[in-house]
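Standup notes
- HV: blocked on the assembly model, inputs below
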Amino acid sequence: MSRRRLAIPAAAAALALALAGCSSGGSGGGSDDPNAEVEFWSFTGINQKDSVDKYLKGNPDAKVKLTEVGSTTETATALTAALAGGKVPDLVMIQNDDLPKFVENAANFVDLRTLGGDDIGDKYLDWAVDAATSKDGAIIGIPTDVGGLGFSYRADLFEAAGLPTDPAEVSKMWSSWDDFIAMGKKYTAATGKPFVDNVETSIFFSTVNQVTEKYYSPDGELVYDTNPQVKDAFEVAVETYEAGISAGIAAWSSGWDPGKANGSFAVTIAPSWLLAGIKNAAPDTSGKWRYASIPGVGGNWGGSVIAIPARAKNPKAAWQYISTMLSPEGQTTHFTDTGTFPAAKSALESSEVRSYTDPFYGDSKIGEVVSDSVLKFKAFYNGPDTSAIGSALLNTLVDMEVGNVKPADAWQKALDNAKAAIGG
Amino acid sequence: MSATIATATTADIHNGPAPQKKRGRPPRDGRRPIRQHWGERIAPYAYVAPFFVIFIVFGLFPLLFTFYVALFDWNPIGEQTFVGLANFERLFQDDRFWNALVNTFGIFLISTVPQLLLALGLAHLLNHAALKMANFFRMALLIPYITSVAATAIVFAQIFDKNFGLINWVLGALGLPAVNFLASQVGSWIVISSMVMWRWFGYNTLLYLAGLQALPREMYEAASVDGASGWQQFIHLTIPSLRPIIIFTVIMSTIGGLQIFTEPLLVSPESGLTCGGGRQCQTLALFLYEQGFGQFKFGYGSAIGVALFVIVVVVAALNFFLSTRTRKAR
Amino acid sequence: MSDTIDEAIPQALREIGPATKTKKRSGGRVGRVGWPVYVMLGIATLISVFPLYYMFVIASAGASAVTSVPPRLYPGLNFFDIAAKVFDTVPFFQSLMNSVIVSLAVAVIASLLCALAGFAFAKLQFPGRNTLFLIVILTMTVPSQLSVIPQYLIISALGWVDTLQALIVPGLASAFGIFWMRQHMTTTLNDELMQAARIDGANSWQIFWRIGLPVVRPAVFVLGLITFTSVWNDFMWPFIVLKSPELFTVQVALKQLQANRTIDLALSMGGSFLATLPLLIVFFFVGRRMVAGIMDGAFKG
């Protein structure tokens, strides 16, 4: 036989073996070296790079490889895929919407109490730690930041419509959601333009995060369809739409950023992590914005934790990063550097945080508004399908705003969508 | 040539010499006929083996495994529980599934029918012996085919944008109201379909052109002599002669059209995996991805996959039978 | 049994007419080409090229081009700035390399494997030949999304998640490629040639390597081009399998840019344009062959 004929199959076999060998890397247990290289997955747009740089400056022997995987959802997808069978990072950021699914399968993560002792929970907001605690009490993530709520509004447009501009007065004027709608009607009547950007994120995501019980009862039973608080929260959004004061511009849609710049709407919800977004989108409107607390009491949208997967190669080194950068002091410093609001209690109450203002927002007392918002926030139980139900309800509102669903039918449609989403 | 040619059968040519026939001339490489014959017998299998090994591991086995996973409630990072046909029961009662089905077919029809007609017409235009810059036109038509799919989605989303899109600007210039394409179901179908049409119409045009150029001139000349108009020639001569190629493009477009995934995914960033608050443009493939990789319901996602498989096979078979039957009916 | 195979689509396509045997095309209709034809072809060309051009306009003029009324249709001067920004935001050059590696690997290896298998199906008789070929045809009807989930599980089991080989190896089994090569082998490699070779004592491998392959080389080349293009543009599978940005192919890197779409449209348009540029360059050189190959394919199919 021709030797050449065997050569190709042989080469292919060798190649396959080599490739297989290359990829099945080490799967040994975690190492104890605190300076081993830490593989850190974070989302884009959250600027963990500053944090990492600071850590490396303070700990010159440490090594951290930061990868910005994508959006929060994409990072969660990547993490799940990795946990299911690929190589896992040593540190990973998980956004609070995605957290319940992971907490439910807590065995995939290291119980951080084994690395940091029993008192770690006390340092951070109770509800934030609870969200990362499994049924057996294992704490799988340390909260990194929160999404305290406030409304950003254009003071110049308010003035033109005859509304007060000072944040304290504005907050008083819209102390309840009904008052908010009335105020919006006044604005639209005076200017002919929409008051708020949309109802799904600006209204619904605020109201539904102010409840004491959301989609699940404290025992973990599904109650989204029977809980009157959820329905009320939803109906506020519908009423806002019916009042004709919404611009119908969905968050992150093509008209959203231009809308901030050109006054298509005067009010938009701004959890602390969106504050920078407004500045980026509308740099020419600096000084025209203000920040005031929202109607109702407290609220939180978003926030994340950092976790260590159980199969991580270097858990000790990973923990060193967490204990340094996520400590209350670390979070306070991070706040002063980047404006990301901390989840540590003492950090939130610190003067650095509470006195925070920004000239872009007319020196409104942003720090106070945000920290009050999260400190007053009463947690509710989040189950594994919380995010799916929330999306189903939100999407119904989006659909209503583009005209596909009649307001009167919206709640029922939302229930149907939620039911389908969870396989009810 | 020599007498050996006359006695050699087709089998000989394709199989190599049979063991009992002795060749007058010894083989060039001096090997014995018997070992050569054994090698020749397994040779064909060896040649198709690489393909089949890879196909079985990465093509056939996953397909069968999809059927298996579909019978489970499969959490990739948790537990897997056997649920039998429960996923399918849920699927048939799931409005989102039927919605995705309607979307898939709607998009498929809008993107295939006008596109193939257009391709036919363009091929007809290109089919001129005296056409200048023929190659230039042909190459230009292939540019959409090589353009990155992700890039296409971003550009088209921009063109159809309700606030700043070119289409709405043109409508405005004509005095018509702006259309929020992605808000309505049919509107979003139009956006996705235009992407698909744009990508493939050049490719299909070239296929038809090839077929047209193979048609004998005499056929048209005779028809002209008989007084048939250009249009009549087109309907009664061109199209029937192109039938085989048309069938081919219809079937390939069907298979491709039922699998559309990237365009709905990328067309509106704020909609995530649902392609619109009301899932206006969520195709079956995107629904599969949303359930499987978005919600991590691998079992349910696999059930969607099985449904998609059945649909593709049925539709492709339908297409094939319809075309064969009409051929025989002629 | 061979009738059944020939009943299938390939036979249908071969029924175009006696012209196929002579391989000479009529070249089209005679007569003068009126200007309406050029106008319509011009419009078709414009439609084909416009989106790419528009990408370039926005990329070079900045996002403000989008919100201007009337929309801007001529390019600006900032293209290189935006390109630089694209390279800064995502490891774009790396992703270009990854795409080249993956596309080239699949194109070359798959073409050879398909040529080999196509040769066997076309020219060699062996038991089970027709059944196996039927299976190949059937797999063309199966959309790739179907088995994505188990395929992912298999890749995990092999430890290949987030690797380039996960993109290369599964792509080597191209049913279309086998179909294509079998057709070309059947029509180009005629029996007389094989007969002569057999008499000279060549075994099937030698016939394939020394005679068959050189004769169908143009078809193999075109198959390689088509495969290269389709792997280059493949989005879904790399998107699912790859997680490390340094391994991203160009299409997935583009999705990263898209996340910033509302913030900086020019950036994602710039990335889109750059993602197509390499293919455009290749196309500039081998486009004619690609056109001819696609047309031949219809012909011989």
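- HV (later): unblocked. The first strand of chain B starts at residue 72 and ends at 74. Chain B has one domain: 88-329.
- Next: hand off to the docking folks.
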